[in-house]
Amino acid sequence: MIPLLRKACAFVVRDFRIESGYKTAFLIRIVDSMMLLVLFYFLSQLITPRTSPGLGEHGYGYFSFALIGLGFARYFDLTLRMFSESIRLAQVTGCFEAMMSSQTGCIAVALMSSLYGLISGGVQLVLILAAGVVGFGLDLTHLNLLATALVLVLSLTIFVAFGVLSAAAVVWLRKGDPITWILGGFGTIVGGAYFPVNMMPPWMQKIALVNPITYCLEALRMTMLQGYSVVMIAKPLAILLGIVAIFLPVSLGLFAAAVRKGRREGTLTQY
After folding, report:
1. In this predicted model, what pLDDT tens digit does every residue of 57-83 receive, in sequence order?
2. Which of 152, 159, 251, 252 has its CA 20 to 30 A from that of 227?
3. What are the backbone angles phi and psi of residue 37, rounded to the nearest 5°?
4. Which of these, 40, 50, 54, 44, lies nearest to 199 by C-alpha position?
5. What is the 3-state secondary structure (H, E, C) of the chain?
């Protein structure tokens, strides 16, 4: 366990040193999130539960709805990108083959590559929520901490599963990452990050039913804005558990298969 923790810390330190060399990029992400926060605040002044039937059944305003979706979407996108960008950087710098041939193992390397992204994304999520509470009056007084923590753990595990899948796509394709593009952009929109799913066209609602992000956001809004307990969100929790049980081993298996294919064909050093 101690050697494993040391390796995990080494990955976090490595990614922190790389990220700290680009302080402007980190600040730009924060500023971009705050600009979206302001945009959704003023947009919420035009959208009320009375004028939007899709919000009326939830009992809270559009700003609260959109802020949870914004924080989640930014966290999800950053975590996904950390996987693919970490693998891509290792390919470009010529150390990817050495990493995959080390005693750590390819799956452990893929998982540990996500640690800094999870921490960095968590910091950004906290900043977005804090800005919403302090600057724009976001009401989190009904927050159920235990239920929210459980939903976040399951959501983060799903993030990791899809992040490993995006890393597998980078190893397989060597250029381009369709997983991050599809899930980080289209997936969050269809999942109800910015607009209620019941206001979308029927074809989008059908996609939302098979989109894991839909159930993550549904459960988070219930626990953070309405104070739902673990028992009250049993249905979305069961769906999230099923998604984790299926997608995590599948994504890990696909990543391992992509690495084996690269070793066999001698393409791990290509980018």
Report:
1. 666 788 888 889 888 888 888 777 777
2. 159
3. -60, -45
4. 54
5. CHHHHHHHHHHHHHHHHHHHCCHHHHHHHHHHHHHHHHHHHHHHCCCCCCCCHHHHCCCCCHHHHHHHHHHHHHHHHHHHHHHHHHHHHHHHCCCHHHHHCCCCCHHHHHHHCCHHHHHHHHHHHHHHHHHHHHHHCCCCCCCCHHHHHHHHHHHHHHHHHHHHHHHHHHHHHCCCCHHHHHHHHHHHHHCCCCCCHHHCCHHHHHHHHCCHHHHHHHHHHHHHHCCCCCHHHHHHHHHHHHHHHHHHHHHHHHHHHHHHHHHHHCCCCCC
Structure tokens at 55: 């919000």
CB 159 within 8 Å of CB 73:
no
Burial (CB count <10 Å: 0-12, 13-18, 19+), residue 46:
exposed
User: pTM of this prediction?
Assistant: 0.82
d(CA 57, CA 55): 6
**Would you list the domain boundaries of the chain?**
2-265
Cα 191 to Cα 194: distance, rounded to the nearest angstrom: 9
Return the sign of the alpha-carbon dihedral for residues 245, 247, 252, 254. positive
Average predicted confidence (pLDDT) for the chain: 80
Each residue of 26-37: pLDDT tens digit? 778 778 878 888
- Angstrom distances, CA of residue 60 to CA of 49, 136, 210: 7, 15, 25
The CA distance from 135 to 144, in Å, is 22
Q: What is the pLDDT of residues 134-159, one digit of tens each?
A: 888 888 888 899 999 999 999 888 88
